[in-house]
Amino acid sequence: MALNSVLRLISVLMVMLVVGLIGFRISSSRLKKKGIEPEKAVPQAKLQAKKYSLIAAFLYMVAMVSVAGLFM
Amino acid sequence: MKMMYGMLMALTPAALYAIYAYRLQALFLILTGVISAVAAEAIFQKLTGKKITVKDGSAAITGLLLSLAVSVSTPLYALGISAVFGIIAGKQLLGGLGKNLFNPAMFGRLFYLFVFPDSILPWRQPVDLTTAATPLEILRETGSTAGVSILDQFLGFIPGTIGEISSLMLLIGFAYLVYRRFVRWRIPASAFATVLVLAIIAGQNPLFHFFAGSLMLGACFMATDPMTSPRFEKGQIIFGIGIGLIIMSMRWWGWQTPGEYVFTEGTTFAVLTMNLFVPYLNKKFKPSRS
User: Fold this and answer.
1) What ipTM goes with this model?
2) String of DSSP letters for A18-37
């Protein structure tokens, strides 16, 4: 497996991880403000965070493929 | 489950033709895609303590669709890793079948295009396996569809991904899905209608566009995934029109990647982009009870 491919693989996983973590914090604080109990808020926030991380991965990959000269 | 196995049946003609056209390498690609997807789903569900659902056939479909959407030059490890990513990120991360945001096969394919762009080339001619340009690359280079035989495109004597080359085999499979009522036919119908109108406006042969690239495979088998396509009629039509518009704009303008692969086909981007609008389309076009 080429080094370029390894770097691309790691980069997409990092984007998902970072956006997921940020998304979780934002979602859980929003749900807290709405007054939802933490027991219910955590699974909801986790699901939201996963959605954000998937959308970020999609946008990141499309952007990188379309402006590939920046990265490839 | 009936529908899933119906889908596998429908993809069989295209898979068999791929094996005929590209010999053992196509068989290995198909086996790698299916086994990787099924194993990834089973292992992920086992590790997360969920019920193992590989018998429903959905993971096998994802693996098969993904393997049909790669070129014969693809290394097996690249396909295997892409199938694992498609299943875990595209499907299992949000809770499995029915909860996924994106079509897992398409998500895996985007990952493949992003991580392994070097492995796409060279395109190979079916049967004799010589290196050749795809019809869409010819369109890009010459600006015309005249140099490509429509009959060759229809029968499957043009280079492309292993499952997209024979429109005839894909249409046989799609006809079976329509006959069994396993498919939301309005989506491919509106996608093809959009392509038809745009091709006529541009003065190009619509049949060329129907049979070129992965429009047939994507619109008939991937965009119609019941989990990631709109439930209601109007939503399905808009979904299909969106796919047709994005595909044609990609074919005309595409994305130029300096020194590397030129993306002349946009089915992956079209289906995934339209997947994002599915919750909105379902909400907007939900029939009111009166």
Assistant:
1) 0.89
2) HHHHHHHHHHHHHHHHTT--
